[in-house]
Amino acid sequence: MPTAIAERCFCYTFSMLADYAVRVEQSRGRRYPELQHPYRDDFQRDRDRVIHSRAFRRLEAKTQVFTRRYSDHFRNRLTHTIEVAQIARTISAQLGLNVDLVEALALVHDVGHPPFGHAGEKALDIAMRAHGFFFDHNLHALRIVEDFELRYAAFRGLNLTFEVREGIIKHSHDYPADKFPELAGYLLDLRPPLEAQLIDVADEIAYSSADLDDGFESRLLTLEQIRNGTPVFQRFYSEVESLYPDAIDKLQFNETLKRMLNRWVGDLIENTKERIRRAAVSSLNDVRSCPARLVTLSTAVEQERREVKDFLYKNLYFSATLDPEKNDAERVVSELFKFWMAKPEYLPSNYQEKATQEPLPRVVCDYIAGMTDNYIYEQYEKYCG
User: Fold this and answer.
1) Residue 237 is inside which H or E element, if any?
2) What is 35-95 written as a DSSP string?
3) Do 168 and 105 meet the contact criterion of CB atoms below 8 Å apart?
4) Which residues contact 277 (CB under 8 A, 6 or more apart)?
5) Which of 71-85, 273-287, 338-352 is predicted with the least confidence, judged by mean pLDDT?
6) Is the model's pLDDT at 60 over the cut of 60?
7) What are 104-124's pLDDT values in tens digits?
8) pLDDT at 22 over 90
């Protein structure tokens, strides 16, 4: 792109940002200074670095709810991430936020998850706590982008901007500064920017609607169950039935889910705008000093989302049908953890080397957390099967 055109495009994008948005030219920068790219700004480069990372690619073979041993028709961690990015981009544009930063944060928000979804995370945390440590997928994601990814000769990690690294750890959780001194550089006493706050709610919206879809497709949830258990779904389904009385159940289901998703996204946009207005927010500093997060659903719609989430926990996530998969996942993670703790000489050479500089439980945890579902099964068969 010729320089003049690039400058015009950049100026146009800049003019669309709200006063409270993060501006790339005001970024706190990278750990290791780099020359400016001729036609991509720093947040665009961060987004691209995430997409080209090994950790991002591995999400394709990590469980969201259903493992591939159950079926490969359903969402995995990567397709979920793409859906979060799509929802977050749409909302951020309406709020005047920095869409490039939002997209980078959405794409990186789950790279710290271990294999087997929440069952794997639970097992890994239990194994770590037995040795006085713990596992947190946000903090692990930070370790990935700062250290584990090896793509550049000049530095370890991806050398992402401060704003992306801050968003990785603060988008969904507030870490107390007194308990996490190693995170002191990330402004733990201040709120994250709206771009980071948005990711957590977009994530909740994405999986709450998508898991209803996959649960219905898997036949673990019946249409009658969903209609009886989620009032917001029932309300829209009645509307769809009257509009498309001859459509098959699946198409009526899709139309209902689309309306529910539109309601939640629209509400999040309008409610956040109103909260920004009431708080008299006119700058990023105002956002950071707010006593509470600003990107939220309205009370009524948040209640709807919670009802759907509670329904999913009761009828899908804790379904007896999925118990064998979850139990298998927890057993594989815990037994492999014990094996490598007892016999670290069977770790790959680079992890053996790391174990001379870091506690062995942390090294074993790092190794397991990076695995895909397929690879950890291979390792289990090799060492414990």
Assistant:
1) helix 231-243
2) PPPSS--HHHHHHHHHHTSHHHHHGGGSBSSS-TTT-SSS-BHHHHHHHHHHHHHHHHHHH
3) yes
4) none
5) 71-85
6) yes
7) 999 999 999 999 989 999 999
8) yes
Helices H, strands E: what count in the chain?
18, 0
CB atoms within 10 A of CB 353: 11
Q: Measure Cα distances from 313 to 52, 225, 319, 322 in Å.
A: 34, 13, 8, 12
pLDDT mean over 246-267: 97
Length of the chain: 385
What is the C-alpha R_g of the chain? 22
Residue with tokens 């001194």: 181
- Cβ-in-10-Å burial (0-12, 13-18, 19+) of 280 comes to exposed
Q: Is the pLDDT of residue 54 over 90?
A: yes
Task: Domains for the chain: give ranges and CATH numbers.
Answer: 1-385 (1.10.3210.10)
What percentage of the chain exceeds 70 in pLDDT? 95
Question: Chain centroid to CA 275: how far?
Answer: 24
Structure tokens at 277: 């207005």
Residue 70 has pLDDT above 90, yes or no: no
CA distances from 278 to 274, 282, 294, 301, 375 (A): 6, 11, 10, 19, 51
| Cβ burial, residue 254 (10 Å; 0-12/13-18/19+) | middle
pLDDT tens track for 71-94: 667 899 999 999 999 999 999 999
Distance CA 332, CA 80 (A): 24
